Amino acid sequence: MNEQKKKALIIGCGIAGPAVALFLKRAGFEAEIFEARKTPEGFALSLSSNGVEVLKMLGLDGPVMAEGSPVTRGMMWNGKGKRLGEVTLAGEGRKSVFIKRVPLGMILAEEAERQGIKIERGKKLESIETTNTGSVVATFQDGTAARGDLLIGCDGVHSRTRQIIDPAFSGPVYTGLMNTGGYTSGVQVSSPPETTHFVFGKRAFFGYHVSPSGYIYWFANYVQAQEPVREASERSTHEERKQRLLELFRDDQPFIREIIGAAEETFPDFPSYALPTQPASWHKGRVVLLGDAAHAISPSSGQGASMALEDAAVLAKCLRDIPNSEQAFATYEHLRRERTAKMFELGQRGDSGKFVTRPLQQWFRDLTTPIFLKLFANPKASDWIYSYRVDWDAPVTTATADSIEGREMVSHAAK
Question: Per the CB 3.0–4.6 Å rule, which of 147, 297, 335, 403 could disulfide with 347?
Answer without folding.
Answer: 297
